[in-house]
Amino acid sequence: MELFDVTIIGGGPVGLFAATMARLHGIKTLLIESLNNLGGQLYTLYPEKPIYDVAGFYGVTGKDLALSLIEQAEHFSPTIVTGESVVRVSQTDGAIYEVVTDVQTYRTRALLLTVGIGAFVPRKLPAEGAASWENHGVYYLMPPLDHFKDRKVLVVGGGDTALDWTLAIAPWASQVTLMHRRDHFRGQEESLRLIRESPNVETKTPFELIRVVGDRRLDTVVVKKVGSDSEESWSIDDVVSGLGFLPSLGPVKRWGLTMDGNTITVDPASMATNLPGVYAAGDVAQYPGKVKLIATGFGEIGIAIAQIRTYLDPSKHGLPHSTNLKSVAKV
Ligand SMILES: Cc1cc2nc3c(=O)[nH]c(=O)nc-3n(C[C@H](O)[C@H](O)[C@H](O)COP(=O)(O)OP(=O)(O)OC[C@H]3O[C@@H](n4cnc5c(N)ncnc54)[C@H](O)[C@@H]3O)c2cc1C
């Protein structure tokens, strides 16, 4: 069975950049992604949302950033497997890890876990009728934005996900109502400022969604001001949940790693976990002061790949400050 130097588990933005960096530094690399598409949260959760805080890009959409990362990685020819979930990792004799997916088994000397928030499990809207309108009136994953053209949209939630989706939908919709069950929104102040300046967006607090109603298509939501008994009906075409996603790491929790809730505890100086030769980066990696951003994950990859390179060959230290393509040719 083929032996890889490093196996990266999770093909989100951080795992994809890890594949590029590992190959660039001559490491024989396997990347395994459980979904059929690469790109993680960028591609699956917010493909059309613009991103402003990744170096070198202004307002790149999630999908375009994912496609750029895929193209960059493919230049360096890592082995990429999609549609396989890693269910178990275990160390065999001679410091080799077996990586067992729901399809087959791989062998690797080191592991880099970039599993993010795991499977994408949306927090469901606690409203009567919401389940029966899922994907044709009630949305947990963002459909193409032109779907909202000239429609009246209700976005539910008070954090960054709800605020981001409100701003992404507003240029298309005739009207967006952002509703939150508390008095104050938790999301970024700058997003709130932009929302307040948007002529077709209104905010409603503290309101909660009671029912979603329609005949052949969704046309009404029934809401209630928190603390009052009287219900109101609003004419709405689409409901978008901005309640976020439940972390669902599933089998990762049984691999013997030191966990802190749904994150893996790492040493930020090395991105090493408690298991020898096993590293973690991106949203899943936790240490004091951690900020869950794409830019942070990219930085962590520089540290992790340097350490993995030394782990694989103790005569090598750090990473060269300038990259070239000679090292790739050696593998
Ligand atoms: C609505 C929204 C807007 C955001 N906006 C921004 C923004 O503007 N700027 C910013 O910097 N960040 C933003 N973020 C956060 C950003 O998307 C994350 O920080 C980033 O996606 C983390 O990347 P990752 O590769 O660590 O994890 P993920 O993107 O979660 O990718 C992890 C991948 O691992 C796979 N996986 C999980 N378990 C397994 C397994 N057992 N086997 C195989 N594969 C597995 C998953 O399927 C997934 O594809 C936003 C997030 C959301 C939800």
UniProtKB/TrEMBL annotation:
Could you say which cofactors this protein requires?
FAD
Q: Name one GO molecular function term.
A: NADP binding
The residues the record assigns to binding FAD are 33, 41, 46, 86, 120, 283, 323
| Assigned keywords, A-Z | FAD, Flavoprotein, NADP, Oxidoreductase
Which segments does the entry list as coiled coil?
Answer: none
The record's section on InterPro entries has: FAD/NAD-bd_sf (IPR036188), FAD/NAD-binding_dom (IPR023753), Fd--NADP_Rdtase_type_2 (IPR022890), Ferredoxin-NADP_redctase_2 (IPR050097)
Cofactor, how bound (note)? Binds 1 FAD per subunit.
Please provide an example of a Pfam family that matches this protein in its UniProt record: Pyr_redox_2
This enzyme catalyses: 2 reduced [2Fe-2S]-[ferredoxin] + NADP(+) + H(+) = 2 oxidized [2Fe-2S]-[ferredoxin] + NADPH
Residue ranges of every copy of the FAD/NAD(P)-binding domain listed in the record: 4-289
Taxonomy, superkingdom: Bacteria
- The EC number(s) this enzyme carries: 1.18.1.2
What interactions and quaternary structure are annotated? Homodimer.
The family this protein is said to belong to: Belongs to the ferredoxin--NADP reductase type 2 family.
**Name of protein:** Ferredoxin--NADP reductase
Q: Lineage of the native species? A: Bacteria, Bacillati, Bacillota, Clostridia, Eubacteriales
